[in-house]
């Protein structure tokens, strides 16, 4: 199994490309609420992925040292998703709820697509 930090650099690059496309879509189309929802969800998804990678590093280090770790931060990652929903509910004229939910799933889509391409490559 490959190192998660190596895969994370690829995921980060793909997510930043998607964010650039979303910003262009927000700036040049009439679907600004949809693209703002995608941007908000994708930023939240990226933070969730970043947090998971960071906790994985801490878990691996603690395991090698023989220590225990309290949690992998599930509640903080769920709080990010909840915060994104609160922002959308507070500003429904600026953000689209469905696109924000799709944006929250972006990192999982990126991981699945990257796994598919890495599997084909090998």
Structure description:
This protein has helices spanning 4-28, 32-65, 74-90, 97-104, 106-121. With 122 residues, it is mainly α. It has one domain. Helix 1 runs antiparallel to helix 2, helix 1 crosses helix 5 and helix 2 runs antiparallel to helix 3 (74-90).
Task: Summarize the structure in short.
The protein is mainly α. 82% of the residues lie in helices and 0% in strands. The protein has one domain (4-121).
Task: List its traits.
5 helices; 122 residues; mainly alpha; 0% strand; flat
SSE blueprint:
Layout: H1 4-28, H2 32-65, H3 74-90, H4 97-104, H5 106-121
Give me the number of helical elements.
5
Low-confidence stretches: none
Oligomer: single chain
Structural class: mainly alpha
């Amino acid at each position: 199994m490959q190192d998660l930090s190596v895969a994370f650099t690829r995921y980060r690059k793909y997510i930043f490309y998607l964010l650039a496309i979303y910003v262009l879509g927000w700036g040049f189309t009439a679907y600004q609420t949809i693209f703002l929802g995608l941007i908000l969800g994708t930023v939240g998804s990226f933070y969730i992925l970043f947090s998971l990678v960071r906790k994985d590093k801490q878990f691996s280090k603690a395991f090698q040292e023989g220590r225990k770790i309290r949690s992998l931060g599930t509640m903080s990652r769920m709080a990010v998703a909840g915060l994104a929903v609160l922002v959308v509910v507070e500003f429904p004229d600026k953000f689209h709820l469905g696109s924000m939910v799709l944006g929250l799933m972006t990192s999982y889509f990126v991981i699945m697509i990257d796994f598919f391409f890495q599997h084909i490559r090998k």
